[in-house]
Amino acid sequence: MNILLLDGGKAFGHSHGGLNRTLHKKAKEVLTALGHNVQETVIDAGYDVEAEIEKFVWMDAVIWQMPGWWMHEPWTVKKYIDEVLTAGHGKLYQSDGRHRA
Question: Within a domain: residue 80?
Answer without folding.
Answer: yes
